User: Which sequence fits this backbone?
C-alpha cells in the first residue's frame, strides 16, 4: 500500500492526504529517497540546497508524513527496530527560531494532518502546540536551535530546516551566546542522536538556500556527493536546483524584480 505515496496516490487521493498540489519529479524523488525506512536503498542523510520558494518545507512535510505512515503500517515498529515495546519513535523538525518552528512549519504540518482523511479516519492524530502524537508511540516534534529540549528524544528523522539561517560557530563565539548552538553544532548533535538510536536507518536532512559563500549548506552539498548513503538533490550537471527548476509552480520571471534590484542576493536566494 505504501508505494502509492511515491506514485502520487497518498498525496492526491481523497482517501489519503487529498491535497490540491502538484509536485515535480525532482521533489517526488527527494521525498521518496529520504523517507525509505525498510526498502533499499536506504539513505541516512539528505541535502537539499535549493532556492527560496522551491518547496523545501513541502518536501519535509511529506517526508515526515510518509515515514509516519510506513511506521504505522508495521504491526509493531518497536519490534521491527528491536526496541522496547513502550519506546517512542520521534520525527523532529529543527527550525532556526521558535517563532519559525511554531508559526510557519508546524502550523502548515498540523493543518495538513487535521484536514487529511488518512489521519482523521485511519491514523488518529493528537495535536498539541509543539507535538503530534500518533498510535504506536510515534511522534512528530517541532524544535528549534534556540532550545535544546529536542535533544532528549528518540529520533528516526531530524530535519534541519533552513540550516544556513542558524548562526555559525564563529558568530556565536563573537556574540558569546550561551543559549544556542550554531549550524555545525546542531548538525553534529543531530547526527549523533539519529545514529545512536537508529543506526543505518535514521536520517538527517539538511535544507536551505545559501546565505553566503562557503556556508554550511554549500559545504554539505559538496561533501554529500562523495558519500554513498547521502542523497543530494542535484541536477544532471551536479548543480543545485533553482527555485523554478525544483518547484513546478514557479518561473524565473516571478523573481525578475529581485534580479534587477540585487542580482547577487537574488542568485543566492533563488
Assistant:
Amino acid at each position: 500500500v505504501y508505494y502509492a505515496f511515491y506514485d502520487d496516490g497518498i498525496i492526491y487521493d481523497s482517501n489519503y492526504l487529498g491535497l490540491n498540489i502538484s509536485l515535480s519529479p525532482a521533489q517526488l524523488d527527494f521525498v521518496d529517497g529520504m523517507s525509505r525506512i525498510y526498502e533499499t536503498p536506504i539513505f541516512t542523510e539528505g541535502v537539499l540546497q535549493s532556492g527560496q520558494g522551491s518547496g523545501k518545507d513541502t518536501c519535509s512535510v511529506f517526508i515526515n508524513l510518509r515515514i509516519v505512515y510506513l511506521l504505522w503500517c508495521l504491526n509493531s515498529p518497536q519490534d521491527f527496530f528491536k526496541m522496547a515495546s513502550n519506546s517512542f519513535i520521534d520525527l523532529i523538525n529543527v527550525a532556526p527560531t521558535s517563532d519559525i518552528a511554531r508559526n510557519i512549519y508546524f502550523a502548515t504540518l498540523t493543518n495538513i494532518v487535521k484536514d487529511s482523511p488518512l489521519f482523521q479516519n485511519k491514523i488518529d492524530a493528537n495535536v498539541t502546540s509543539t507535538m503530534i502524537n500518533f498510535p504506536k508511540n510515534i511522534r512528530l516534534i517541532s524544535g528549534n536551535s534556540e532550545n535544546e529540549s529536542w535533544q532528549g528524544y528518540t529520533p528516526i528523522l531530524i530535519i534541519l530546516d533552513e540550516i544556513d539561517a542558524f548562526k555559525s560557530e564563529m558568530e556565536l563565539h563573537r556574540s558569546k551566546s550561551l543559549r544556542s548552538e550554531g549550524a555545525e553544532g546542531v548538525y553534529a548533535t543531530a547526527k549523533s542522536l539519529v545514529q545512536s538510536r537508529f543506526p543505518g536507518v535514521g536520517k538527517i536532512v539538511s535544507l536551505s538556500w545559501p546565505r553566503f559563500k562557503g556556508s554550511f549548506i554549500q559545504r554539505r552539498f559538496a561533501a554529500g556527493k562523495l558519500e554513498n548513503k547521502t542523497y543530494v538533490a542535484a541536477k544532471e550537471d551536479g548543480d543545485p536546483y533553482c527555485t523554478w527548476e525544483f518547484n513546478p509552480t514557479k518561473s524565473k520571471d516571478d523573481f525578475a524584480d529581485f534580479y534587477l534590484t540585487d542580482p547577487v542576493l537574488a542568485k543566492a536566494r533563488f
Remarks:
- The beta strands are 45-49, 89-95, 126-127, 131-134, 138-144, 155-160, 203-208, 230-232.
